[in-house]
Every structure is written in C-alpha cells, then in structure tokens.
Amino acid sequence: MNDLFTWPALGSLTGASAATLLTANVVGGLLGPAGDKARKWIALGVALALSYLTAAFATDVGAEKWIIAFFNGLIIFSAALGINQLPPGNRQATQASPSRIAQGGEPRYIRSWV
User: Is the pTM of this model over 0.90?
Assistant: First the structure.
C-alpha cells in the first residue's frame, strides 16, 4: 500500500499530473459522453487545487508562492493533458463513437479528449 499515492508523491510533478489525469478521466467517465467537455475543466481544477495545496504547506517562502502556485498548476495541467499533442495537427482526430476503428484496423479504446 505504500507504493501507491503518498503525500510526497502528490507534491511532485509526476504524481500531481497522474492524479489530475486519473481524477479527470474517472469523473468524466462517470458523467458519460457529456463528460468529455467537462474533463478539461475538471483537470484544470484538480491541477490548481493540488498546486495551491502544496503551496499552503510551503513554509519557507514568501507571498509570491501563490503566484508560483498558479503557474505550477498550469504545468501540472499541461503534463496531465499531454501538451506535446499540441498543435492540433499533431493530434489524431477523435469521434464520439467508441467503436471507431484506428488506422491499424484495431478498435480504438483510448481516445484523446484534448
């Protein structure tokens, strides 16, 4: 159980972006097809919340930590979203139908919501 999420792991970029992606996908999946548009906002909210929570526990910095926390939240959001998929020309087109066949002729189970 100690190998899963821990407080220090959530304070890292990797842990925070993984938690952001996981939360957005689970909540968006529970909402159904209408949740696809909400996932981006859920991810942004979780990323900013984790960043500000980490800043709240930082004791050795001044008031500028809140400004830095905002930008750190954007970094977490970008890492969770897979910012390397931008610009749109680098992304694969998605379709609302989950039965879409990928280029290799295989069913596409994971689709980008970016």
Answer: no
